[in-house]
Task: structure prediction
Amino acid sequence: MTRPAPVSAGNGTHPLSRLGQVGRALAARWPTCFALAFAAVNLADLKDGRELAVVVLLSAMVYQACALAGRRGVAWPALGVLVAVLFGFRVLDGDPWPVLVGTALVLVVGSLLAGRFRGAPPAGWQVPAMLAFGALAVTAEYVVPGAAGYLVAGALIAHAVWDWHHWRANAVVSRSLAEWCGVLDLTLGVGILILL
Result:
């Protein structure tokens, strides 16, 4: 008595096996999937792009916190704390900018006092990057709405390039954070340009 041949998808691969491969591929790229979902939520409620200036500031602050600590593992906890602070201000209908800008300045001063700006690139570049991205984010809060959206989009795309460089160098922040941040920044920046 012979057994019947197993049912295949036509190319020798069972459909459930293919589903498992897709699942493993998505799991390996979880930062990208998480970033795309996060970007979709933020773009769905987009007004003029100015509201995403805070993403530019938070992104730079995470890099600065890692540079100050000298540990890439600080990236996700720092992001979690910053997002929790931002969420708290939004729930209380408060203005998070003074606290966030103050915290960014404390990170910069701490890095200067610790001599972190003298480190080899890209770690040594974090102070000027924090100041540049921070200035762009704060400026976007005070320019006319139409221009603010384009300024934020440009800053997000520039930070995506920054993320890519750090992801490639595997430096300053964890690679998963650099991937997440790069995909998020690029998606939000392009999304603002398209939706404006």
Remarks:
- The first helix runs from residue 15 to 28.
